[in-house]
Design a protein that fits this description.
The complex is a heterotrimer of chains A (269), B (260) and C (265). Chain A is built from nine helices and ten strands. With 269 residues, chain A is of the alpha/beta class. Chain C folds into two domains: 42 residues, no CATH class; 199 residues, Orthogonal Bundle (MetI-like fold). The chains are: A alpha/beta (269), B mainly alpha (260), C mainly alpha (265).
Amino acid sequence: MNPSAGNSATGIRFRKARVVYPNGTVGMKDLDLEIKPGEFVVIVGSSGAGKSTLLRAINGLNPISDGTIEVGGRSVPQKESAELRRLRARIGMIFQDFRLVKRLTVMSNVLVGRLAHVPGWRAMLNLWPAHDKEIAFRALERVGIADKAWIKAGQLSGGQQQRVGIARALAQEPSIILADEPVASLDPVTSRQVMDDLVRINRELGITTLVNLHFLDLAQEYGQRIVGLRNGELVYDGTPDTVTEADFQRIYGRAVTEDDLKLSGESHG
Amino acid sequence: MTARPMPPNRVGWGTWLTFIIAALFIASLIAIEFTPARMLQLPAQLARVLGFFYPADMAYGWNMVLPAIVESIQIAWVGTIVAAILSLPLALLGARNLYPRISRIAHLISATARAFPEILLAIYFVPIVGLGPFAGAMAIGISSIGMLTKLGAEVVESIDLGPVEAVQASGGSRLLALRYAVVPQVLPEIVAHWLFRFELNIRASAVLGVVGAGGVGGVLLNTLRYRHFEKAAAVLLLTILIVLIIDMISGEIRRRIIRS
Amino acid sequence: MAEAAVSVRPEKPPRNWWLWGTALAFLVLMTWWSARGIGFSINELVCNIGGGRRLLQESWPPDFSFLPRLFAPFLETVQIAIIGTVVGAILAIPISVLAARNLTLGMFVWFVDRNFMNILRTLPDLFWAMLFATAVGFGPIAGALALTVFTIAVVSKLYSESLEAIDMGLTEAIRAAGGSWWQMVQYGALPQSLSQYVSYVLYGFELNIRASMILGLVGAGGIGMILETQRSNFEYERVTMIILVVLVAVLVIEQVSAVIRRRLT
């Protein structure tokens, strides 16, 4: 692991964690799961299996109704508070739909990752210390789009926008990265590039990384560890090479079809 | 033989509505004694008065009317600035997608402010701050808050909420989420609404002189009252000219802001 | 994969300082100059809050005994609005048609009509009221004429834009079948845009009700004439009563009109 990044990778532990939505749907059923510092975990499951719920519980975007989640040994606060914001500042999040402000420059979007690290008045007045701008630039360089820094985010392609999303997460200097279906709106080639970026960052910086994927082939190719969810329950937890046909059956409730593969047609293996 | 269908019954609600409107219209004409004889007199009467307006007394125009129009513009500007500053937070709070509960209060304030025509507000402001343009600016400001809040809240309701969550997920406070995810998305449209309201406010401030709240309206009222038609003609000419120019400039700026 | 180490950091493009500087300077100077020009002072506002409270005390409660005397002028106000809306809405049709680029009769007609429309729009409602009150004498007829002009200005602007957006297929078919220009407009263009037209007229009616309440301030009839007398006599309890009536009327008309407009679309 790269000590220069200055992140102490952080583990995550779910203990009998349960999420019930206001409409009564159970999003997560008494989940027990431990993720070690620096791991690269891919979470698979069909839509509605509770993948997003799991990720969003880690940074408190979805509160849990029962049980506990601990991040780095401290339990996640369940109410909006300064403590929760401090925790979120250390957890980068990447979204399927990028969630950039299209009218702002790439740089401004990446600096959003520094908001929790500078004094509030400086952030309000858009007066960024040189140190934070440097971090933002380095984050852009790490995903290879520093040359686009002053272009409006809306003018970039989908793959480039997702890299801005990754850079924004990196600018937080996080110890955990949560990626919620980061490639679902991208084509196969771009998907592969984005996944490569995520793996590289995990390896170089040792940031604990959780990635939600719908596609099995991507999950098998990239995951060091695969967690399978179905109806909010853990149904598989192991390495990619031990996944069997029966495991797929358990995760998806049916046999694997073409639709579950993203890279089909491409040569890999 | 084929059965030819009857045309459908044409006496629908449209016909009834036309009939009712026609009846109301005629009843109204009778009530205000707008008789056919009176109507026939009208063109000659209007033409005769129109003749008095020529030639316009432009010396009076440059010396007396122009300063009054400038005052109207100043009233409209200050009123718009006051309304813009006060309506921005109200527009954010009035957005149902951000503040489902508080937005009702903002909407209530907005609806109340919209219900009052500027000139009625001016009637109350004149005794408070005295006769003059300051009262006019306050009246314009308060009454513009209503429309600017409503339009602004609609803009905020149409934004993409994704970036708001992204800011919160990175540990930013709600205030910073407004600053970095909401305001950049809405500001161009909101500024365009401010400019549009400024155009409307110039017209509104022009009439406030009628109740003594400054501006060109008072000048027109006096010139007409004393039947100085050449001077009134100067008022009308200059008002039309200047309002047209400001509309043109402001409209062009609005288009550019929206395009950027 | 692109290697991170070798990367060119672009210079931040310089802001267009000239544009931003000018805009900011204009904003600040214009505000400062305007505020001075009109004697804006927070101080005065705060100092006079006392006077404001006294005024509010004098204005409240509204003088309900005055209500019966408001009935006739209120009715007159509504009558003025009806006449102005009906006549204005009819006259707005030819003006809108000639101002629509796709229907007009030649560039010259279009240019003249368009500018005529814009000039009507520059003058506020009360200016028209003052002019007509001078020309035809104080009273409701002046108000009705003023609102006619005001309605033409509001409706023709909006309606000509709708007419420019209609589907020209039908109108061309009528032309191709040998129809005259007027037949093309009557059977091709107007029916397509009827619901927009009705909606604009209703909007005009809302504005007219609002405007008709204050026309009386310059002697053009309706409830505003009583408002002007009571205001001059500082009978603020009665002023409040009148304004309450006006507000209720405006809100009711707006609600009704909103319901009808929603049904139309």
